[in-house]
Amino acid sequence: MIFSGDSGLFEIVLLSLRVSGIALALSTLIGIPLGAVLGLGRFMGRRALVALMYTGMGFPPVVVGLFVYLLLSRSGPLGRLDSPLVPDLFTPGAMVIAQCIIAFPLVAGFTMAAVMGVDPGLRQQVRSLGATDWQTTLTVLLEARVGVIVSIIAGFGGIISEVGAVMLVGGNIEGRTRVLTTAIVLETRQGNFDLALALGAILLAITFVINVAMLRLQGRAFSE
Amino acid sequence: MNLDMNPSYYVQNLTKVYGGRQVLGIDRLDIHPGEILAIVGPSGSGKSTLLRLLNFLESPSAGAIGFRGEQFEAGKDVSLEVRRSVTTVAQRPILLNRSVRANVEFGLRLRGQRDSAGEVRSALEKVGLAALEGQPARTLSGGEAQRVALARAMVIRPDVLLLDEPTANLDPYNVGVIEDAVRRLNEEQGTTVVLVTHNVFQARRLAHRIALILDGRIVEVEKSEAFFEHPKDPRTSAFVRGEMVY
To answer: For the purposes of burial, counting CB atoms within 10 Å of the CB of B215, is it exposed (0-12), middle (13-18) or buried (19 or more)?
Structure first.
């Protein structure tokens, strides 16, 4: 199946990358600014938000899947809106939402830790050189870039290997919502261990290649 | 530099309170355009707090800072243009984890400018570090890092340069390079310099006028020679003679 270039397998790999890629991009867009605000800002309710974020970092994916399922189901608060902006259950869109909820607290939490590790005197120095608030935050994020890249790696690791949530909200429908992890579960249940192992090897290889790419980026940041 | 000119930069009835404790209370301090004003005093006397207020990094608890014909009082917004005409070189140089060149160019980039006239190279030459332009800043010694911090401030051509103990803990060579660069900046570009130091010898070498600050209050402000030779306040005499031990 792998060596013959099976189109079904190709679809599964592509969907896995598409769903996790979009979810990671959205999580990065939400998580990095949120982490920066929590790490640099001092405002009322910050502690509560940090506690919520830490809880999110350890949230079981299957529970996230359950929440998203209930939200998007026909009788759920979002599902009954019948809006084109709200994806239906058992679609890649629903899987993206679930993975996004899993990944963004990880990205935000590690980003917060990274910016808090930057010398506090840097902000004052940068402001003294004429930086706006936005430029100051961006400079601190760039100084913390090694840690920020770790946050993205952590977010990616949290979703590419995740099975519970995508199984619940995606349904593992062949040709529509089947991704690598759910395919592995299915093939294992059917006793096709060779195929399950092969799919596992592909998943590992993808994870390895993406992490190497991010580490190279991190390495460049180290050597600057 | 004419010390009798009207000051364009002053503080009036300025107070700063942290946690209920007043750390600064200055009735009036004028800073004349183009002068080097040294503010001397023992540790904890409020010198660095005054610099942060002068750099508009903090808002005063009460009173006002006059600058460029405007008065900035507690809670009043300071425009970016005003903030960008004053900068500080801190006692501990905090450089970005980038090259020496990128660090010096940083202020220009914040302003959306490019180093079209070779200003970065020129600033590095003035502090004797042109040869290290491409080196990572984290590999520099403490003295070199402080010289880069000074070049970074010089390249943006501020109207006012605030120096907070810029040579504390540096060896005599680095002290000499920094003092020479500051003197040249003042003489050649007319940059107003406010130098905070507890080193009276440095104040005497560099400053046109010297102010003594004790417990957050200005005791005396005099031209350099008069400050040392004919101090009016007995506390100034004691400080100059090194008798004021804290």
So the answer is: middle
Domains of chain B by range and CATH?
1-79+197-246 (3.40.50.300)
Give the pLDDT of residue B169.
Answer: 83
ipTM value: 0.91
Question: Which one of A121, A130, A143 has the shortest CB-CB distance to B96?
Answer: A143
How many other CB atoms are there within 10 angstroms of residue A183's CB atom? 26
- Residue B245 clears pLDDT 90, i.e. is over it: no
Task: Output the CATH code of domain A16-169.
Answer: 1.10.3720.10
> Is the per-residue pLDDT at A223 higher than 60?
no
Could you say which residues from 133 to 162 on chain A have a Cβ atom under 8 Å away from some Cβ of chain B? 135, 139, 142-143
Instruction: With beta carbons under 8 A apart, name residues in chain B contacting A121.
Output: 90, 92, 94
| CA A89/CA A115 separation, integer angstroms | 37
Structure tokens at B172: 């005599």
pLDDT, tens digit, 9 for 90 and up, residues B86-107:
999 999 999 999 999 999 999 9
Look up residue B243 and give its two tokens: 């008798």
DSSP string, chain A: -TTTT-HHHHHHHHHHHHHHHHHHHHHHHHHHHHHHHHHH---TTHHHHHHHHHHHHT--HHHHHHHHHHHHSTTSTTGGG--TTSPPTTSHHHHHHHHHHHHHHHHHHHHHHHHHTS-HHHHHHHHHTT--HHHHHHHHHHHTHHHHHHHHHHHHHHHHT--HHHHHHH---TTTT--HHHHHHHHHHTT-HHHHHHHHHHHHHHHHHHHHHHHHHHHHHHH-
- pLDDT tens digits, one per residue of A38-51: 999 999 999 999 99
Q: Select the residue of A119, A135, A142 nearest B110 (Cβ to Cβ).
A: A135
Angstrom distance (rounded) from CA A18 to CA A30? 18
Nearest CA in chain A to B110: A131
Q: How far apart are CA B8 and CA B95, in angstroms?
A: 31
